[in-house]
Amino acid sequence: MKAAENAPDLAQIAPDPWLTGRPKKTCVIDVGGGLRDIYGAGVFDTLMDQGITFDFGIGISAGAANLSSFLAGQKGRNLVYYRDYSQRPEYMSVQNVFRKKGFLDLDYIYTTLSNTDGEYPLDFPAIDANPMDFVTVTTNAVTGRPAYWRKNRYRQDDYELIKCSCALPFACHPHKVMGMEYFDGGIADPIPLEKALELGAEKIVLILTRPRDMRRTDKKDRMYAKALRQKYPKVAAALEQRARAYNQALEKALELEEQGKVLILAPVSDQGLKTLTRDPDRLQAMYDNGLQDGFLVREFLEN
Predict the structure, then answer these.
(1) 118 is in which domain, residue-wise?
(2) Catalytic site residues?
(3) 6 found inside a domain
(4) Pick from 246, 212, 207, 210: which is nearest to 54 by CA?
(5) 12-21 pLDDT, tens per residue?
(6) Is 189 among the domain residues?
(7) Where is the PNPLA domain (predicted)?
(8) Number of domains composing the chain
(9) Which of 15, 53, 190, 266 is least enclosed, having the fewest CB within 10 Å?
(10) CB within 8 A of 33, min separation 6: which ones?
């Protein structure tokens, strides 16, 4: 374990000229939130209708899935995944706990359904050809630190990075990239505002999946951390700090919004949706809210 802890994160080994070279001006951040991020899917579908794009995007968990469909130009794709496919037992169910050893089957979602021969494939050639870049956020299962991955790490029918970023503790197991395990990116960097600024963003659209006046509490995170501590002590420590990190980043985003540098898009209500709540009517309401809020982006970017 000591050797693994001291090993450099493979996502961080060498500085990438993309991080320090050409300027990046506009950015969209989607923080995820499980099925609640159908709100973000609505935002992106409106942006596609309006032909709006960005220099780069940063996606966590479901936010990475939303961004991949956005770069592919596949309007409506994520709506089907959130609202329709989520009802299937293969997607998430108690049966999966016994068959797959996890409630949520990320392999079903991002391989069986998303590969070239899947029911609703991701258009990877379109993603690859899109000049917009995007960063996927994951949490290293050994170090508990965030790891950031560029679009060029993806390959056709290899969406392991999205699985890593979506790997909620207890709902599923960590997933591997280059031999290392990763959990949901929202554990280590729940609102990657500092990363966007570090990459040169001057105008940032921040997509949340809870109302903007909501602040996280650490009650559940501490409970999960206690259960994780023996096997993943650094991830447990990151979980204990997640609420504080989220709230601090949100406060900074609110300050930057006052300065005209950030636009926060957030649902007026979370519709009572938890991370894995799959009520079709409430999900549709969240999506519709996102569709409407997407119309706020053009004016923000042009001013």
Answers:
(1) 26-302
(2) 61, 184
(3) no
(4) 207
(5) 433 444 445 5
(6) yes
(7) 28-197
(8) 1
(9) 15
(10) 39, 61, 62, 63, 208, 209, 210, 275
